[in-house]
Design goal:
This protein has 311 residues and is of the alpha/beta class. The chain is built from eleven helices and nine strands. The strands form two sheets. A five-stranded parallel β-sheet has the order 7-6-5-8-9. Strands 2-1-3-4 form a four-stranded parallel β-sheet, sandwiched between helices. Helix 6 links the parallel strand 5 and strand 6. It starts with 15 loop residues before the first helix and ends in a 9-residue tail after the last helix. The model has no long low-confidence stretch (mean pLDDT 92).
Length: 311
């Protein structure tokens, strides 16, 4: 079944039924990725452009790998060394690229709303790989998919998202997606890093981590994004770790089967201790693995391929 939109700008407004379509499609591609030969001809003849205006490791490699696994033609764009560095506008750049006959665009940009802007001026399908502090939908999809794989369900799970909520596009996408899937979502972080009125999205807000972590099934830890912050939002890195870091000592107070997640990159010893990141409760590497299957599913569903999925 196709999705209602031919773009993936964010998870706001996406229904539970559409999310389940993505997950079930990812199940098929996850099976493909377990084979000795991991490539299928599903998107043969389709061209995907990766427009990354911000640094990225996991997301960029994951999308590139997903595209190659689907046999799509891939073009990688970097703003450094491009005509943008000479003063060309984003609009002119992308319209010139589209004139070369492309089908899908994966875009990461520091400005919120860039993927939506591109969806209005291009005929290609747009996939948001992160726009400023707005949304990062495929990261939230792979987070939920990893929990679905771990627990066999999503509904009624108790998930706590900890950290720099204000500057996190991962947090907002997960709030939209998880609440749609019936997950009980809570947030915890310093008051200076907590946006106003988030409680209107159906989440519970804590400012005391030791209170917030009680009885939670999942702790999703976010990176402190110093590059996006103004100075003075918290006293020091040391104090942040003491108040909001998931330390080995805090882990011992949690449920034995609690799941630890992190979208990466990790600031070890700040928001997450190294011993916790590497412990048996952590599914951080499983998140990375599942990212390829999720992105294969999204690329396929937005590609316009009308034939049934055959692998």
């Amino acid at each position: 079944m196709p999705l209602k939109s031919r773009h993936l700008i964010g998870l706001e407004g996406i229904s539970k039924e559409e999310l389940e379509i993505i997950f079930k499609t990812a199940d098929i591609f996850k099976e493909v990725l377990q084979r000795p030969i991991k490539k299928v001809p599903t998107l043969t003849g389709k061209t995907v452009v990766n427009l990354f205006f911000e640094p990225s490791t996991r997301t960029r490699i994951s999308f590139e790998l997903a595209e190659r696994r689907l046999s799509a033609d891939t073009i990688n764009f970097s703003s450094s060394g491009s005509s943008i560095s000479k003063g060309e506008t984003l609009k002119d750049t992308v319209r010139n690229i589209e004139a070369m006959k492309i089908d899908l665009v994966v875009v990461r940009h520091s400005s919120p709303g860039t993927p939506l802007f591109l969806s209005k001026i291009l005929n290609a399908s747009i996939i948001n790989a992160g726009d400023g502090a707005h949304e990062h939908p495929t990261q939230a999809l792979l987070d939920m998919y990893s929990l679905r794989e771990k627990f066999g369900r999503l509904e009624k799970l108790k998930v706590l998202i900890v950290g720099d909520i204000s500057h996190s596009r991962v947090a907002l996408s997960n709030i939209y997606g998880m609440t749609s899937m019936g997950i009980n979502v809570s947030l915890c972080g310093p008051a200076t890093l907590m946006p106003r009125e988030l409680d209107k999205l159906g989440v519970k807000i804590y400012y005391n981590l030791d209170e917030a972590i009680k009885d939670k099934d999942v702790i999703l830890v976010l990176r402190i994004q110093l590059e996006r912050q103004k100075k003075g939002l918290f006293p020091s890195i040391r104090e942040y770790r003491n108040c909001f870091g998931i330390t080995k000592e805090r882990l011992q107070k949690l449920k034995d089967d609690v799941v630890i997640m992190h979208p990466g990159p990790i600031n070890r010893g700040v928001e997450l201790d190294g011993d916790v990141a590497d412990c048996k409760n952590s599914i951080i590497l499983e998140q990375v693995e599942n990212g390829v299957a999720i992105r294969m599913a999204v690329l396929y569903l937005l590609s316009g391929v009308e034939s049934s999925l055959t692998i």
